[in-house]
Specification:
The structure holds two protein chains of two kinds. By secondary structure, chain A is an alpha+beta fold. Chain A has three helices and ten strands, in the order ααββββββββββα. Chain A is elongated. Chain B has one domain. The model of chain B has no long low-confidence stretch (mean pLDDT about 80). Classes of the chains: A alpha+beta, B mainly alpha.
Chain lengths: ~190, ~80
């Protein structure tokens, strides 16, 4: 008698209907599924949602965002970039700088919003800093996708492309976003 | 407690089953890592990950379908 038989002395009438080899065949099919999944990711040209992988030579269609002077520090505006599903957020930081990011949280895809001095994902209380979109608190581990902005001579603001993903993701330090600051944002 | 004897093809050693499960665990980790990398915009490791996953799948398939020498009751 094997050790697990002694540990779990249960006898089921149906247990003989499913052999180890059948179970191993099922596992092999699951294994093939994993391989097919990786192959699909390999062959897929369009980036996954939240991913940043524009095709070489791909030209974005610029999107007009209105007058740059319309947005005051601390204000935000939503817009669509590539298509009607590509929700983005334009913000003017408290320092007065304009930034635009994909609105999709890199954790589970909820829409982030601009609160105080940070971008906040209300689903799981993830926070991103506004300068480069880095996650500073909560479950997200990847930065928000950034959108390239262009101010034209007539004062209009345009979204013209996608920023490359920053690779120098800093360690989350308490000084970057102290936990006690959270009460200031949510209150 | 005695289990009814099975046909030879139905027997499968615990070692073979353990290797198959280990292959699945490695593939699960590999898939999660690859997905994380793709979401981060890094696609360079996809080719290598696919080849590694394919090799592990071949191992699992061989064990499941073509491994009579691993049966634990060759005389049955």
């Amino acid at each position: 008698m094997t050790w697990w038989r002694r540990a779990f002395p249960l006898e089921l009438a149906e247990e003989g209907h499913f052999s180890r080899r059948e179970f191993a065949r099922f596992l092999a099919v699951v294994s093939a599924g994993f391989t097919a999944g990786i192959g699909y990711l390999w062959l897929r040209k369009k980036p996954l949602e939240g991913g940043s992988d524009p095709e070489p030579g791909h030209h974005e269609t610029p999107v007009a965002l209105g007058l740059a002077s319309d947005l005051q520090p601390g204000q935000s505006r939503l817009f669509k970039f590539r298509d009607e599903h590509d929700a983005c957020i334009l913000i003017r930081t408290p320092k007065g700088e304009l930034r635009a990011y994909r609105q999709t949280c890199t954790h589970l895809g909820c829409a982030v919003r601009f609160r105080g001095e940070r971008l906040e994902c209300p689903c799981h209380e993830g926070f991103f800093e506004v300068d480069r979109g880095f996650p500073v608190q909560g479950p997200p581990s990847r930065p928000l996708g950034g959108i390239t902005l262009e101010t034209r001579p007539d004062g209009t603001l345009w979204a013209v492309g996608e920023l490359p993903k920053p690779t120098d993701l800093p360690e989350r330090v308490a000084t970057a976003c102290p936990r006690e600051a959270r009460t200031e944002v949510t209150s | 407690m005695s289990l009814p004897s099975r046909p030879r093809q139905g027997h499968f050693t615990e070692a073979a089953l353990g290797i198959t499960l280990l292959v699945l665990v490695i593939q699960l980790y590999l898939f999660e890592t690859v997905l994380q990398s793709v979401l981060d915009g890094h696609r360079t490791l996809l080719a290598g990950a696919f080849i590694a996953s394919l090799a592990l799948t071949v191992v699992a398939l061989v064990l499941a379908f073509k491994a009579p020498c691993l049966d634990d009751d060759p005389g049955a």
